[in-house]
Design a protein that fits this description.
The structure is a homodimer. Chain A is mainly alpha-helical. Chain A contains five helices and no strands.
Amino acid sequence: MKKLATVTLSAALALTSTTVFADDKIEDAIDYRQSVFTAIRYNFGTMGDMMKGKIDFDAKEFNRRADNVAALSKMPLEAFIPGSYKDSDDDTDALPAIGENWDKFSKGMGMFGDNAAALASTATDSSSKDDVASAFMKVAKSCKGCHDNFKD
Amino acid sequence: MKKLATVTLSAALALTSTTVFADDKIEDAIDYRQSVFTAIRYNFGTMGDMMKGKIDFDAKEFNRRADNVAALSKMPLEAFIPGSYKDSDDDTDALPAIGENWDKFSKGMGMFGDNAAALASTATDSSSKDDVASAFMKVAKSCKGCHDNFKD
């Protein structure tokens, strides 16, 4: 019996260890995607303030922030993993609908990335507000599209 | 007196409003740079696990993460603004030494960006661990350099 008990204990510890690791992985993934979205909001928010006329339009700064948003937009998708949605974790506003409609969600995130890349290509250090308005609105709409369907 | 009192009240409100805005700006800046560093750690940590042999080396994933780190490395510098250091705000580990030694700090951050860009250029979808080892270590050292001097 002693040997069996030892084996069972080892198996239990191994299971615990794996479970802890999985939890860490989920928390890290949530933390990562939320951080990336915070960084996107910081850059895109300033661009929005320029478009709305709340602050002066600065083509060079707009261009730099458009590059940042384009790079950031490609990052979060990998972090929407099973077990990281609002049904199983309260630290997130990401709805289980993401896992249930993965094709739609990942296409939406892909479109966000494509639109952000197009805005980054359009913006230059000498572009005017009119030059970037249409590309900017496309990015804003792709944010809203996913938020409406997949964010609490 | 009535007119003077009104003017003083308006001035006081205007001051309050500006103060609140400045506080928001500082909190947003701290939040932004911490988010960017979280995203850097997420990507660089996985690259480190590959380099240490904790997980299999995957050239394609390493390359993608090196691109992410290079893009992210250029973002946080703008968010180290006066009033956002540990002497005036407890939400941060960024030491006042940053403001007091701005040239050294900004050069360090610039070197981090240069080293991250060099690693991203070196890494390809078919590079080996040996191919990227030296460029990877340079990035790791530039992280440590700033943390030793400027992070609590």
